[in-house]
Structures are given as C-alpha cells and as structure tokens.
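tool=predict chain=A
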Amino acid sequence: MSVSIGIEHVVKKYGDLTIIPDLSAQIKNGEFFTLLGPSGCGKTTLLRMIAGFNSIEGGQITFDETVINDIPAQKRNIGMVFQSYAIFPHLTVRQNVEYGLKIRRLPKDEMKEKVDDILRVVKIEEYQDRLPERLSGGQQQRVALARAIVIHPQVLLMDEPLSNLDAKLRIEMRSAIREVQKQVGITTVYVTHDQEEALAISDRIAVMKEGEIQQIGTPQDIYARPYNVFVSTFIGHSNLFHAKVRLQAGTRNVVFRNGYETEMPNLVDEVKDGQDVVMSVRPEEFSIQDQGLACEIMNRTFLGKYTNYFLKFGEGIALEGQPSLEYSQDLGHVDRILEVGDRIFLRPNPNKINVFTKEMDQSLIKDVTKYE
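tool=predict ok
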C-alpha cells in the first residue's frame, strides 16, 4: 500500500557546508513526482534522505503521518532503482526479481505468484531464465524495476534510471516506467536532469536550484507558466527581452525596447505604469508578421518537423549573455524555409508570453503560483 510523503523544512549539511537549507514539499499518494534540476542542485541528496541513506539535520520527512527521520533505511519499506541497474550478474532474471522476497521468507507458492505477476507487468517473462549479460540495457533496467516493485514497497525511488541508455531506449523505457507505475499505483519519486524526460513522465515536477525548490507544478504548468526566469530557461528554451509595462485607458500593455507594444490583460493587478520587466518568449511562440520585433537570421538547423533559426535582434532589445535567441518554424504550415541573412519581423503570441519582474525571480502573470 503506497503512502503520501511529507517533506517539511528539511535541512542537509555536510560539516559547515549546507546542501539543502530549508526545503518543503508534499507528494501525493500514488503520484509520480519528479525532482528536476542541474547537477549539484540537491535532488539526489533529497532522494537519499527519503531513502534513509543520508541523515537529516533539520525538519522532518513523513510517510503518511509517520515521521521516518530515525527509521533505518532497511525498515522504511521502499524500492530503489539506480542508473547502474545494480542487478546480480550471476543470477537469472527470475532469481534477481525474487531476491527481495526470499529475504522476506515468503512461501514458495506466494513468491512464484508475485514474481510471475511482475514479470508480466514489466514485460520480461520471456527473459526470465537468462543471465543479465544476455540482456540489453533496457531489459536490465526492466529487471531492476521489477525487483524494486515485487516487494510491494510503500514508495518507489528512482535515481537517474535511464541515463545509461541510448536515446531510443530512453524513450521506450520512460513510457514503460510510466505505464508500470500507473498500473501498480505506487508513490514514486524520480530524479533526473533531463527536462524532456521529466515533462513526459511526471504527474508533477519540482524544479530545484542550489538546494531550493523553484516551482512545483504539472508538466503543462511548469512549461507554459514558469514561476521565474530560471524555470523558464531550464525547462526548454526561452528568449528573454527587456520591456516596460504601460497602463493606458484601462488596458495593461507591455512595450519592447524597439517600441513594439502588445496588450497583456493577464498581468497581475499590482503592476505599475513604467515598471521594468523581463519578457520570456519560447521559439515556437513567434509568428512572422509585417510588424513586430525586427531580427536577422544568423544560422539555421533543419530538424525534420521544424527548422530552428538562430536570430540577432537590435542592440539592447534582448538580455545580454543568452546562449542563443531562437525561432522554431513548423514545416507543416509554411511554404518556404528562411535563408541565412533574411530580415524578418517576429510577433510573440500575447497569450503565451511570460512576464517577470526585472529581478527575474517572480512571474507577473495572474494565477501563476510557486507551489501547485
């Protein structure tokens, strides 16, 4: 039976070094919850605190109403899946999967039934008598998943489980993991630095930076309405522009530095006339028009369904220091591909634009929240 997980003001320190200063989150029963962030942001550290592998220097973690801070890892009733698979090379698939049940001394008939069921769920029945060396990376990861789930843990913890697989297998396995997780209904905490993987597999995502949660939300909300510029630029690509708020005759507008103006009725009521803001526009949210933001095509990349263009805007229009400024053209809806050197006007879709404070730490769009 799965549980909800409460993480309340937890602190993690190594000597004088604080890795997680004060972190809180609530993970729902049966939810697929992903910790996403760059290397070194504290996501694996937090996962290991839930598992009981790392100590907790402050706050508490609960499974339902039970505080687990001082419960040893082996008594927390969790399943773990690692990126290295960690399956026994000298045991067959079936022997690997039944290992945890043997430790629990289940009767043979019951153990066989449970193993048969999970082999069928993860679709490795036909490989049950093989040794791991005769399995592909994806098949080995299915064995690791089956072994973690067969013991019926309350919580399943997964630490970068697909990072050792090639691109095609990663897509196949993330679908398999999602399907299995929903079928067994187990509360799952999943760690990854891969944004696409997190968007594809999660019920909710917690985006982390330097030991702190920047935003928690559904994949759709995180992508479409990020809480701050870090989330906007870490999840997919965003182009950032300088702009000002203009309040005029009962309307809320934003004005880019080249003078292009667009109405933004969904700005929060607290914005002030003349307020400096940062605009975030994703590459697919532009359209070519007769007026808008003037730019030049500097380079292009053909990617099958669409072409990605690298842009140069007028001086001072975009924030400095961005890796690239991009426009994505859906090739299913255009007659021609643009050429390097072409000069065009791009108009951002006002329903998709995100607006942030000039400090870039908070959204100015109505109903955007840090924690869903």
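The chain has a mean pLDDT of 94. The helical segments are 43-51, 93-103, 108-121, 137-149, 167-184, 195-201, 219-224, 229-234.
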